[in-house]
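Researcher: I'd like a candidate sequence for this fold, 119 residues long. If you have to choose between options at a position, lean toward the conservative one.
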């Protein structure tokens, strides 16, 4: 089971850190990804990380602004989002992956956390 937190209302240019906490025993075996879904749009994988934390993937639109990391001792994956833009407004989900590459094969979704970017 995965549980997200850290969303909220933030002004453009602001920052947030999202957390995804897992309740699995062998957390470091799993690649984990962050996805987002805006109203009327399909869910997209934005940033994903390997089980060890050594490898990451980002879609082009978030490179340089989003940073994914993980603390396996805390069974937590983080998504640091800087320089937030209104188009980043979405519900953000974390999920277990087949592979962090291209955020492939998501399953075991969390319930999501809402990020709203507005002045």
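Model: Candidate sequence:
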């Amino acid at each position: 089971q995965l549980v997200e937190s850290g969303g909220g209302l933030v002004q453009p240019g602001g920052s947030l850190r999202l957390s995804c906490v897992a309740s699995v025993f062998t957390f470091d075996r799993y690649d984990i990804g962050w996805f987002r879904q805006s109203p009327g749009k399909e869910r997209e994988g934005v940033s994903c990380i390997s089980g060890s934390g050594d490898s990451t993937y980002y879609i082009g639109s978030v490179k340089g602004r989003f940073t994914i990391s993980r603390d396996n001792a805390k069974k937590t994956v983080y998504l640091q989002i800087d320089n937030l833009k209104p188009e980043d407004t979405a519900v953000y989900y974390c999920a277990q992956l087949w592979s962090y590459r291209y955020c492939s094969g998501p399953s075991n979704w969390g319930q999501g956390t809402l990020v709203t970017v507005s002045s």
